[in-house]
Design brief:
By secondary structure, this protein is an all-alpha fold. 55% of the residues lie in helices and 0% in strands. The chain starts with a helix and ends in a 21-residue tail after the last helix.
């Protein structure tokens, strides 16, 4: 990797930011106005400030590590086993393949506690609005690029891989809203606001669902899809009730360290690190699977009206 490559990556990233920023500002202002006019209370100043701060921390780390990410991807590109001649096919395949690999990254972030400790930051807000899309997993740039190494092997250039990820992130931010209902046939193909509301729910039926960034087809294929059926309770199963950035970023790391320090076997220490969030050696906590099982056992026949308000903040009884 040379300086020109790093400069081009920075130029592309800057171009995306300049393109996306006016869009973000318009939709946020419109959503704030809608919230105020209809007394929905979708925003708080402290929440929006924390979201913005975490975004800048994530971007800062991303910039610091960009050279390393490009160098690693460029190295594996040197061992590519194929090349796609058609520009249209090249970008289309890259879009689909990159989105699938992000889906895998996202699944691991939810299923492995040490990665959940990074990703939980994004889920810690009990609000759900466009600015929550900026509530970044601050340390994800440290390992995210590793998931894209297969793309380099497949003949995609490092600059294009990182550009495509940044471009799909724009879409990913725009699905963080309660003000858009279901979108017809797009619900079967794309990740929609309805799908992503489910993803941010702490309701038992919604845990670890709808992991896609752009396409919902991966969730439908691999059994992680859930339709929005009941009002969503946003946040965590055990909320931190804090907008302190240090608490938001490090609270799960503190919990993880405390669990590892327990007087338990080395094998159980490793399980606390690498098993699902909520695993415990003595059964004192519950994983998302166990919470879902409890919910299914206790669930009674309740008919939720099919036209319930998508703006409802009524909490679920199952969180």
């Amino acid at each position: 990797m040379n300086t020109n490559m790093l400069l081009e990556a920075t130029f592309r990233e800057t171009l995306l930011i300049l393109t996306a920023t006016p869009i973000y500002l318009i939709v946020i202002v419109l959503e704030v106005l809608f919230s105020n006019l209809h007394d929905k209370k979708l925003y708080t100043g402290k929440g929006a400030f924390t979201n913005a701060l975490l975004m800048f921390l994530n971007m800062g780390l991303d910039v610091v590590l960009r050279g390393i990410c490009l160098m690693v991807l460029d190295y594996f590109y040197g061992f590519r086993f194929m090349e796609i001649e058609s520009q249209l096919a090249y970008w289309l395949v890259l879009l689909i393949a990159q989105d699938f690999l992000y889906y895998l990254l996202h699944v691991v972030d939810h299923y492995c506690r040490v990665f959940w400790a990074v990703h939980v930051t994004h889920h810690s807000s009990q609000e759900f609005n466009f600015t929550v899309g900026f509530r970044s997993s601050v340390f994800q740039p440290v390992y995210r690029f590793v998931y894209f190494i297969p793309l380099a092997f497949a003949g995609f250039e490092s600059l294009d891989i990182m550009f495509m990820y940044s471009a799909t992130q724009i879409y990913g931010i725009l699905v963080h809203t309660q003000t858009v209902g279901k979108l017809g046939f797009l619900e079967y193909i794309m990740v929609t606001p309805s799908h992503h509301r489910v993803h941010h729910g702490s309701n038992a039926r919604y845990l670890d669902k709808n992991m896609g960034m752009l396409f919902i087809i991966w969730d439908r294929m691999f059994g992680t899809f859930e339709e929005e059926k009941e009002p969503v309770k946003y946040g965590l199963t055990s909320n931190i009730d804090s907008n302190n950035p240090v608490t938001v970023v490090f609270h799960e790391w503190e919990n993880l360290v405390a669990d590892v320090k327990k007087n338990i076997t080395f094998r159980d220490k490793l399980k606390y690190i690498f098993y699902r969030p909520g695993w415990s050696h003595d059964g004192s906590k519950k994983t998302s699977i166990e919470l879902k099982e409890d919910f299914e056992v206790a669930e009674v026949s309740v008919d939720y009206p099919s036209n319930f308000s998508r703006l409802s903040s009524v909490p679920s009884k199952t969180a």
